[in-house]
Amino acid sequence: MPVGEGTVRLRPPVNTLDPRVVGWWRTRWLLLTAGPVAVLAVLGAFLESARFWLLLCAAVLAVVGAGCAGLLPLWWFRTHRWEVTDEAVYVRTGALRQEWRIAPMSRIQTVDTVRGPLEQFCRLATVTVTTASSKGAVRIEGLDHELAAELAERLTRITQDTPGDAT
């Protein structure tokens, strides 16, 4: 098929995520780190023979976790992109190992929005586009919750107007 109008091709998506996603990712990272740090600290308080090593591990993990929470979300924000056209949904994720996904409108089966408690607090949402692909759903995390609702409505409208793929 010649490259032309209406052709789906791999290209960089143009939209960035909502800037609040950085705070959401940081909070998730800190919560993920806080559990093991707390366990190590409590064990260190009660196990005198291993106190030094347990508290040292807790301190190192806390420093590494705080450093990752400070730097990684900024890096992720710079690399994650998304775009929706009349032909497809484009998503690029990953910092070291980048993954580019294209979901042609004719292959979309369902469109969902999800807002966990932390996402609700940050006024963010995730749009999940389920396709007929064995790779699984395409997810766009870190969207403003109102934009996510509009996007889900738009995708539903476009896919209803798009004939199914016969292949």
UniProtKB/TrEMBL annotation:
Superkingdom assignment: Bacteria
Transmembrane segments: 29-47, 53-77
Residue ranges occupied by any YdbS-like PH domain in the UniProt entry: 78-154
Sections of the chain in a coiled coil: none
Keyword Transmembrane helix: yes
Assigned keywords, A-Z: Membrane, Transmembrane, Transmembrane helix
Xref: PANTHER family: TRANSMEMBRANE PROTEIN-RELATED, UPF0699 TRANSMEMBRANE PROTEIN YDBS
Protein name: PH domain-containing protein
UniProt organism field: Streptomyces brevispora
